Amino acid sequence: MNTNTMIYHCSENALAEAIAFCQQKNYRRFSLVCDTNTSAALGERIGQLFNAQGWAVNSIILGGKEVIADERTLEETLDRSGNDPGVFLAVGSGTLTDITRYCSHKKETAFISLPTAPSVDGFASSIAPIVIKGYKQSVPCQAPMAIFADLQTLCQSPKPMIAAGFGDMLGKYTALADWRLAHIIMGESFQELIAARMEQALHACVENCDEIHRADAQGIRRLMDGLVESGICMALAGNSRPASGSEHHLSHYWEMLLLQQKRPAVLHGVKVGIGTILMARRWEQLRGLPLFEVKRRLASAHIPDAQTEKEAIAAAFPFNPEAIIAGQSVYLSMSETGFAELKESLLQNWRKITKIAASVPVSERIFTLLQDASAPLSVAEIGLGDQDEKNALRYAHYLRSQFTVSKLGRILNLWE
Ligand SMILES: [Zn+2]
Fold first, then answer.
1. CB atoms within 10 A of CB 385
2. Minimal CB count within 10 Å: which of 1, 180, 299, 338?
3. CA–centroid distance, residue 124 to ligand 1 (Å)
4. How far is the CA of 340 from the centre of ligand 1 (A)?
5. How far is ligand 1, taken at its centre, from the CA of residue 178, in Å?
6. Which of 204, 202, 213, 279 is nearest to 245 (CA)?
7. Measured in angstroms, how far is the CA atom of residue 245 from the centroid of ligand 1?
8. How much distance in Å is there from the Cα of 203 to the middle of ligand 1?
9. How far apart are CA 411 and CA 306, in angstroms?
10. How far is the CA of 231 from the centre of ligand 1 (A)?
11. In 190-321, which ranges are E strands?
12. pLDDT category, 87, cuts 50, 70, 90?
């Protein structure tokens, strides 16, 4: 994604700005993708405004109780957009934007994002998470050429969606800590300027949490700015590190579980919020560990047996163990010498690690921030059980190759 050229505008005048943009570009034909809710919230109005310009708008209103970005929906959208779809308009939040991102990319045309709720940080992304054969996969597509966020629509969006967006933002605390940790311990590339940008956006949201919870224009604008900024930071970093870490891995795990059990989806940011409480607790555990205890634990730490690890992965992810095992190759192929060096690095850098741990608020604080937003606070509130939480804490880190606090804690035998 070229972050220099993507236009982002969030205000009460966003729709007028969108029209001016299309006039300037001389766009006259559009495929508007929405569902019944987002059609009522914004889609119909956009259709009328664009029609009044003499422009052709093909409204693709996706039906059903729950719109999922799966093969059936993608096929339907591709089909209904026809041979000459023009510019795609994504009217909705996460899922509808991803459906449009995918379909516009397939049809080799551009798309404009018109968010209806500040619920997720994926608007500016170029990756579309889509469900193929029942499993979510990340497909490289394209970023929108512009995002026009109508502030009034965002302020009127359902409160749980606003709370979810806020949860997705809080996840940046633990994501950034994981990124710094991986940089110090694994030598992973890290850009302080990008981390600082992400932090600034996160702090702006936390400072305005009351305004966000009340759905005041200023608060909602800060939240939307933060969510878009998050997508830009990921694009600048060339990976998801600035915005996604161990808390997102928990969310991915639960999402997979709900999908497999054919149960209703839970908003991404809701799961991330709960994951952030759990991972903040892990960082608290690390912070409280005295150096002599770290030394003692490292002295008795042994390299995990690769075969046992593979068997654990196969048991936890029976549908696709090969891909997950391949993603863990850095750790599974580690030599005794490599493991000894890793332990030495942990010991030498322990002071820095505790500093990183101190950058994560205590779990109680995350809990309160989410509670004030009326967001779910535990897996029980999203229909999952204790075992689902335990399994996620034990296995979710296998879903990505990233080094995180989850992997660190396993070396120290702090948790399973
Ligand atoms: Zn997220």
1. 10
2. 299
3. 12
4. 34
5. 15
6. 279
7. 9
8. 16
9. 14
10. 9
11. none
12. very high
Strand order in the sheet with 56-62: 7-11, 146-150, 111-115, 87-92, 29-35, 56-62
Instruction: Over range 200-224, report the average pLDDT.
Output: 97
Q: What is the pLDDT of residue 3?
A: 56
pTM of the predicted protein model: 0.94
Ligand 1 centre and the CA of 174: distance in Å? 12
Overall size of the chain counted in residues = 416
Residues of the chain with pLDDT > 70: what percent?
99
Distance 244 CA to ligand 1 centre (A): 6
> What is the Å distance from ligand 1's center to 82 Cα?
32
111-169 confidence digits (pLDDT tens) = 999 999 999 998 998 888 888 877 778 889 999 999 999 999 999 999 999 999 999 99
Q: Give the integer Cα–Cα distance in Å for 12 and 327.
A: 45
Cα-to-centroid distance, 242 and ligand 1 (Å)? 10
Token pair for 384: 């999952």
**CA-to-CA separations, 267 to 118, 207, 242, 251, 375, in angstroms, rounded:** 12, 23, 20, 10, 11
Domains of the chain in sequence order: 7-157 (3.40.50.1970), 160-411 (1.20.1090.10)
Residue 386 CA to ligand 1 center (angstroms) comes to 23
